[in-house]
Every structure is written in C-alpha cells, then in structure tokens.
Write a structure and sequence with these properties.
about 120 residues; 5 helices
Length: about 120
C-alpha cells in the first residue's frame, strides 16, 4: 500500500516540470508590448531557474532508479538513461508507467509454498 502511494507521489512530482512548461509557454505567448510591464520578470526568472534545478534533480533520481532497479532489463538501461536525459519531461511519465508503476515487490513466501507453486 505504501509503495503505491510513493509511486503516485513520484509521478505527480515528475509531472511538475511538464505542467510548469505549459504554464511558462502560456505566459510567454500571451505577452504583448503593453503587458510587458505587468509581468514581474524577477519572480518568473527565479521560478524558472528553480524548476530547472528541480528537473535536474528528478532526472538524476530516474537515472539512479534505472541502474539500481531490476525492473528495467539490463540491455535497456543505457537506452533509458539517454532517453530520460534527453527527453526528460516527456519520457519520465512514460518510463514511470512502463517500469515504476508495473514493477512489483516480490512477496515473502515460505519455502514450502515455493515448492507447491512449482508443481
């Protein structure tokens, strides 16, 4: 139960850069010469720089997860690291759906049950 909640929280935090990019593009494309004075560029700049650092943090968490997890096949680990690094905002939710959400924690079984399941 707890792992599912953590996985969903990781997804929501992974979607933050994509949501921010949509917000930022709307802000930039709605600017007109008369509305430039209304925008506080200092706060937009600080928000933008903090989101860039936040994105780097999440890229590193995904790359660490890729190489530490057994959910990703060994032959695809380098590929996914490059994909996450290059296409981070788009590829992080896709990777999450394919490997994080679908990964399962092996349940602890008694040795007797393992023998019954093999028959």
């Amino acid at each position: 139960m707890c792992t599912k909640i953590l996985k969903v929280i990781w997804l929501v935090l992974s979607l933050a850069p994509l949501v921010y990019m949509i917000y930022f593009m709307r802000l930039i494309f709605r600017l007109t010469p008369s509305s430039v004075n209304e925008v506080d560029f200092d706060s937009v700049f600080r928000l933008h720089m903090s989101m860039i650092l936040y994105s780097w943090l999440f890229i590193s968490t995904y790359i660490i997860y890729i190489f530490k997890s057994s959910a990703v096949p060994q032959e695809k680990k380098a590929l996914w690291a490059v994909v996450i690094f290059m296409g981070n905002m788009v590829s992080m939710p896709i990777f999450w759906c394919l490997y994080v959400w679908r990964s399962h924690v092996p349940s602890k079984q008694t040795p007797g049950r393992d023998m019954e399941n093999q028959r």
